[in-house]
Amino acid sequence: MHFEPSEEQRLIEQAARQFAAEVLRPKAAERDQKSLFPEEELRKLGELGLLGVNVPEQYGGSQAGVVAYSLALSQIAQADASVSVAMAVTNMVAEVICAFGTEEQKQKYVPRLCSGDAVAGAFALSEPQSGSDAASLKTVAEKVDGGYRLTGSKQWITSGDRAGVIVVWARTDAGAPVDKRNQAAGLSAFLVEAGTPGLVAGRPEHKLGLKGSTTVPLTLDGCFVPDSARLSKEGDGFRIAMVALDGGRIGIASQAVGIGRAALLAAKDYSKERKQFDKALCDFQAIANMLADAGTQLDAAQLLALRAAFLKESGQPFSQKAAMAKLYASEAAGRICDMALQVHGGYGYTQEFPVERYLRDVRVSRIYEGTSEIQRVVIARSVLKEFSDHAS
Ligand SMILES: Cc1cc2nc3c(=O)[nH]c(=O)nc-3n(C[C@H](O)[C@H](O)[C@H](O)COP(=O)(O)OP(=O)(O)OC[C@H]3O[C@@H](n4cnc5c(N)ncnc54)[C@H](O)[C@@H]3O)c2cc1C
Q1: How does pLDDT run across 288-320, given as a tens digit for each residue?
Q2: What is the number of helices (H) and of strands (E) in the chain?
Q3: CATH for 7-119?
């Protein structure tokens, strides 16, 4: 394993850093305070090739790989976490269509996602009564002549009211006897276009953070989708969701790294400027130790994220490593943001400095795309298996 990014990876990261600094950072606080969705910014990300970093060129992507994607996403998140979550979900949807879609589906949707023409993609798995236990979801896809009718409710859908295309998971086994141990086998995934009759987005949630990103409930009231909208075969939905989430967790880890880095930089700068007892804060060992711990944890988080990205990119198993990266990076970034606020003292608790936004934005990275508790379930499963493999 090597630690030096390639020339291409460096260029992508550099493009993202420059865009983040020049376009995103100046208005990030305003987008947060006014809950402004970054529609124009997403289009520009598309123009720069940053909405499909790991998508093949033939479908409009940059084909620069998962490591480049991780580096770019961290840069965007460092400036504005709300933009980065829309970028991450759009990338995830484009990748999922590339991995499981027909040629027609790839041609139809992926270039629009990568260019920003579709503004964003959305991923509708969660429901009011099923979050961690995704396999128990209740939305039904009833087979009808020429397609399916989707009926049910989705909850917490990032960009669900803005997306051009939404991947919707639904049961194609409704009516069959319920087998609690094998509910996942009855799930299928569908590509539902914005504007489909019967698809209604509800009021955006008032969230603690990520205020520039919209998170909405969706109602599907007998939405008709043709057979050609089904992704892969009937019953393949759960596998598709798990594959997508494995990759998505690399995105959330990278996002957390970016927010954590923003917080550490803010703490470093403030600790050099602010004086108490005639000394800069950074000259107090207690403060310097906080920065040292944060720097170490941030490096560890990024290394875990990049390792998972490297494994995915090189076609190796990466599920457990992505869970580790997501778990560690989200929790470490949370501690780093909290530390940064502490270093700012009372000022950190106000909107005069960005650290309160970082702390609010980072919190959800321990919840979405699998909570920390669920990551531990995934990791424990592999650790227990590895341990028994060593013992035998
Ligand atoms: C801002 C935001 C954006 C989101 N975007 C999307 C999106 O675009 N698409 C989408 O489909 N979903 C999205 N989600 C939903 C998110 O993935 C879920 O919130 C998450 O999976 C947790 O589900 P839940 O909220 O129902 O919590 P629950 O599953 O009810 O969990 C509640 C608590 O119980 C714990 N718990 C549950 N099961 C176990 C277990 N087996 N072992 C130990 N602890 C357990 C959890 O860790 C958690 O602490 C988003 C959520 C938020 C807040």
Answers
A1: 999 999 999 999 999 999 999 999 999 999 999
A2: 11, 10
A3: 1.10.540.10
